[in-house]
Amino acid sequence: xxxxxxSPHSSGPDTPADVEVRRIGGRIGAxxxxxxxxxxxxxxxxxxxxxxxxxxxALVFRDQRLDDAGQLRFASLFGELTTAHPTVPSVDGQPHIxxxxxxxGIRANHWHTDVTFVRTPPKASTLRAxxxxxxxxxxxxxxxxxxxxxxxxxxxxxxxRLWAVHTNAYDYAEPKDEKAAEHRRRFVSRxxxxxxxxxxxxxxxxxxxxxxGGFAQSLVGxxxxxxxxxxxxxxxxxxxxxxxxxxxxRPGDLVLFDNRVTQHYAPDDYGxxxxxxxxxxxxxxxxxxxxxxxxxxVEGDDAAHYTPTEA
Length: 311
Known about the structure:
This protein is of the alpha+beta class. The chain has helices at residues 43-56, 68-75, 144-150, 153-159, 178-187, 224-238, and strands at residues 9-10, 20-23, 30-33, 58-61, 98-101, 124-131, 139-143, 163-167, 193-197, 199-201, 208-210, 216-219, 244-247, 254-258, 262-265, 276-282, 296-299.
């Protein structure tokens, strides 16, 4: 599963003949056709999906017929699973599944990388569409490695030395209703603060990417005003349109994205219409910066109840 620059459709020598990769963005995103994820996948197919994930960062599997068990089974092909979330409750009876339910005030309408406020954020996330509105409710995913490459060289060299403190407890916007307020109370019920390198070296590809997003609230060695300005500058490269792909959901769709080198955003543009996704995440490792130094806990615990990965 490799992609050439001359054709939107491609496959590598180890890709099953009936599997097709179609690029959907110039710098990020591909649709995978020819696979029924409810069937068992051969090891070589799983390996090909893994290679495609490294290349395209976000993969879309359309019109799947997965249930919760099927999503768990698919996600586990890429590593050990986390529980649903460090603070937010899971789906009843499914400790590894997080309901992303617009009716319950769960609307992630800010750019972020999943759970970066702990020391070992997820390796990858899967989102499966159960209920989608007739309009709006898309998910945007950005390539943070492309954003890093876009930086002018002096800014790249500066960013290579920066560290950011990520936290789940900061000044959120005022909740618009009681459900949103309750979700916020649960979200911050246990406080986490973790220092991560602003430039993370991908453990498999070796790419450098901007590891920031909404949970990055301050820069080590800088005051609040300077931190906001510098983070805003770096984030502006992440969200450039050329670095972003927009996923328009259909029921049954599943998206797999590399949480180590992407950010995502779900615009709150569907009013009171229902929208329900289920999220399952694969456990990750400790981020490492350009100089080889690993992330460190500033406040809170090691989130062992959430992620099985040890460091």
